[in-house]
Amino acid sequence: MNWTGAAYSQEVSVMNEATPATSDQAVDRMQQLILEIVQALVDEPDAVSVEVIEDRDATVLSVCVSPADIGKVIGKQGRTARSLRTILGAASMKLHHHFALDIIEDDDDEEDGEPTPD
Questions:
Q1: What is the largest CA-CA distance in the chain?
Q2: I need a labelling partner for 18 at 20 to 30 A (CA). Which of 10, 66, 71, 103 fits?
Q3: pLDDT surpassing 60 at residue 50
Q4: Which of 111, 90, 89, 109 has its CA nearest to residue 100?
Q5: Are the C-beta atoms of residues 42 and 80 closer than 8 Å to each other?
Q6: Taking a C-beta distance cutoff of 8 angstroms, is the pair 114, 76 a contact?
Q7: Residue at 118 is within a domain
Q8: What is the pLDDT of residue 55?
Q9: 60 in any annotated domain
Q10: What is the CATH number of the domain that holds 46?
Q11: Sheet holding 49-54, edge to edge
Q12: pLDDT digits (tens, 9 = 90+) for 87-104
């Protein structure tokens, strides 16, 4: 196949359209993707939230779910959580940006707004 001229230019243009222009767009897209997947897994989708925490080398997506749904997001032997992390890893390669996933149980029983010690 000859990669010179207009065909090559057109191919590069299509590849550039598939990837977000900025890191912020990539983070927003991954946040929305994880939110939608987790909401589809749980019984209380309105209780799901995804917080973005910027780190030096990566972006951490912190998923907060209700205590009743934590098992559904983690899965048997952590298989569902591992699958979510695999999706993030694949997207990280495409977007050239590292993502990590934290799954947090939402404690509505907190009185002072601080998490309870484990």
A1: 67
A2: 103
A3: yes
A4: 89
A5: no
A6: no
A7: no
A8: 81
A9: yes
A10: 3.30.300.20
A11: 49-54, 59-65, 99-105
A12: 999 988 888 888 999 999
Question: Whole-angstrom Cα distance, residue 117 to residue 108?
Answer: 14
Task: Please give the DSSP secondary-structure letter assigned to residue 23.
Answer: H
DSSP letter, residue 43: S
Position 63, amino acid: V
3-class DSSP state of 54: strand
Q: Which domain holds residue 97?
A: 22-105
Q: Which of 42, 51, 48, 33 is nearest to 92 (CA)?
A: 33
- Domain membership of residue 96 (yes or no) is yes
> What percent of the chain is modeled with pLDDT above 70?
72
To the nearest 10°, the Cα dihedral for 38, 92, 54, 72? 20
Residue 4 placed within a domain: no
Torsion over CA: 100, 103, 75, 47 (sign): negative
Q: Is the pLDDT of residue 11 over 50?
A: no
Q: Copy the structure tokens of residue 109.
A: 């029983």
51 forms beta bridges with: 62
Q: How many domains does the structure of the chain reveal?
A: 1
